[in-house]
Amino acid sequence: MSTSRTPGVRHIRLKIVRKPAFACFLLWIGCWIIANTSIYIHRSIFAGYCTEEKSKRIFARLCHDYKQGVLTGDVCDDLCVTQTMVYKQCLYYDKGKKVIQADWNSQPVILKSKLENFSSYDRLYLLDERETRSIQDIDILLFTALEVKRALGLEVKNTTVPQLWAKQLKDKRDSYSRAELASMWSLLQQEEYVLFRLLQDLSKHVPRVMGSCGHFYVVEYLTAGHAWHHSLFSVETLVNPSWRDSSRKVLWRTINEIALSFLELIRHFENDFSHHLHLCDIKPENFAIRSDLTVVAIDVDMAFFEPKMRNILEQNCTADEDCNFFDCFSRCNTKTNKCTAERSNSNLQVICDKIFRPLFISKLSELRMYHPLQSQLRNAVLRCSELSIHGVTDKKTMEVTFLELYDLLKAWQR
Ligand SMILES: Nc1ncnc2c1ncn2[C@@H]1O[C@H](COP(=O)(O)OP(=O)(O)OP(=O)(O)O)[C@@H](O)[C@H]1O
Ligand SMILES: *[C@@H]1O[C@H](CO)[C@@H](O)[C@H](O)[C@H]1NC(C)=O
Ligand SMILES: *[C@@H]1O[C@H](CO)[C@@H](O)[C@H](O)[C@H]1NC(C)=O
Ligand SMILES: *[C@@H]1O[C@H](CO)[C@@H](O)[C@H](O)[C@H]1NC(C)=O
Ligand SMILES: [Mg+2]
C-alpha cells in the first residue's frame, strides 16, 4: 500500500513544484517580451525627440545673444534676467519647430521658433548696407509687406503692417535699434508667426501671441489634442472643475461643444477673411482647446490662403494622386497634364475624417451613451467622411452636410 502510494504523492508533489516553475517561466517570457517591445516602441516613438539638455542650451544661447545686444524682445528680461519665465519641458521632434513649455509668473506658456539659432535666420541686409544711417520707417513698412507677401502670398495694406510689429515697437517714435530690427526680421521669416499676428484681432481660433524674445515667440498654453487619447482632447481636464466626478452626460456635453467649435472654425476660415484659409495638415495634435472650449489651430505651418494654395496645387501631373498635397487635394487635368489650381476637397471633409470620426465613432466606446441622436450623428459623420472617397465636392452637398452636422449637434445640446 505504502509503496503504491509513494509515486502518487511524488506525482502530486511534482505537479505542485512544476506549476509555479512553469508559471515563473511564462512570467519571465512575458516580462521579456514586454520589456523588448516597450524598448522598441520607446525607440521608435521617441527617436529624435527633444531633450531637456538640448532645449536648455537653446535658451542659454538665446540669453547669451540678448546680453550681447544681438537680439531683443519684450520677454527677454523675464527669461534671461529676472527669471520670471523658466523652462518647464520641451514638446518637439528634432526635425520640427522648437516648441518649449515654460512657466511665466507661474502660468504655463509656449515658446516657439522654426530654427534653434538666431544666426540661422536671414539677416536684414539693410542693416549691413546702412551701417551708420538710421533706417526709415517707410523702408521697414516696405520690407515687412514684401515678407508677408512671400510668407503668406497676401498683399497687405501698409496700414496692416504696423500691427505685425510687437506692441512695444508699434507706438515708438524714435528709430528702431539694430537688435529690434534683427529680432523682428527673424520673426517675420516664420510663416506661422506672421499668420498668428495677422489674425490676432480677427480670430479666436488662433492662439494669443503674448510676446517674443529674439526669434522665439510666446503663445498661450492650451490643452493640445493627442491621437492616442480616447477623447482626442483630454476632455476630463477641460470639464468645468465645479462639475467634477463628471458624469458621462457632462463629458458628452463637452465633446459636443468642442465639435460645434470645430464647425465654427470651419465656417470662419472659409468666410471671414479676404481669402479662404485652407488647412492641409489636420490631426488632433495640431489643434488645442481653450478653457472656454474654443477650438484653436496651434500649428498653421500648413495653412494657406487661397492664392498660395492655388500656387502650391498647380503642379505637373499624370494622375490625380500627383495632385495631393498632404490633406489638400486637387485633380489632374490629363489634357494639359497640370493639376487644377482649385482645391477639390475641403476643410470640413478632412475634419470629419480625421477628427470627428475618431471622436464619435472609433474611440469613446466606454463613454457610449444611448441616445437616439447619437446614431444619427454617427451616420452623418460617416457620410461626411466618405464624401472625399466618392469625390463629392459640389458646394451644395458640402453645405447640406455642414448643416446636418450642425443641427444634430445643436439638437443634442438641448
Ligand atoms: N499653444 C500650445 N499649447 C499647448 N501645447 C502646444 C501648443 N503649441 C504646441 N503645443 C504642443 O507641441 C506640439 C508641437 O507643436 P507644433 O505642432 O506647432 O510643432 P511642429 O514641429 O509643427 O509639429 P509637427 O511637425 O509634428 O506637426 C503640439 O502637437 C502640441 O502637443
Ligand atoms: C547652433 O549654434 C551652436 C553654437 O553656435 C552650434 O553648435 C549648432 O550646431 C547650431 N545649430 C544649428 C542647427 O545650426
Ligand atoms: C502705402 O503704399 C502705397 C504704395 O503701395 C504708397 O503710395 C503710400 O504712400 C503708402 N502709404 C503710407 C502711409 O505709407
Ligand atoms: C512641367 O511641365 C512643363 C512642360 O510640360 C515643363 O516645362 C516644366 O519644367 C515642368 N515642371 C516641373 C516642375 O517639372
Ligand atoms: Mg504639429
UniProtKB/TrEMBL annotation:
Q: Where are the transmembrane segments?
A: 21-41
According to the entry, every stretch annotated as the FAM69 N-terminal domain falls at 17-167
**Coiled-coil intervals, chain numbering:** none
InterPro entries in the record, alphabetically? FAM69_kinase_dom, FAM69_N, Kinase-like_dom_sf
What Pfam families does the record tag this protein with? PIP49_C, PIP49_N
Q: Which SMART domains is this protein grouped with?
A: PIP49_N (SM01299)
Give yes or no: UniProt keyword Calcium: no
Q: Where in the cell is it found?
A: Endoplasmic reticulum membrane
* Keyword list, A-Z: Disulfide bond, Endoplasmic reticulum, Membrane, Signal-anchor, Transmembrane, Transmembrane helix
Q: Which GO terms describe its cellular component?
A: endoplasmic reticulum membrane
Membrane topology type: Single-pass type II membrane protein
Question: What family does this belong to?
Answer: Belongs to the DIPK family.
Name of the protein in its database record: Divergent protein kinase domain 1C
- The gene name on file is dipk1c
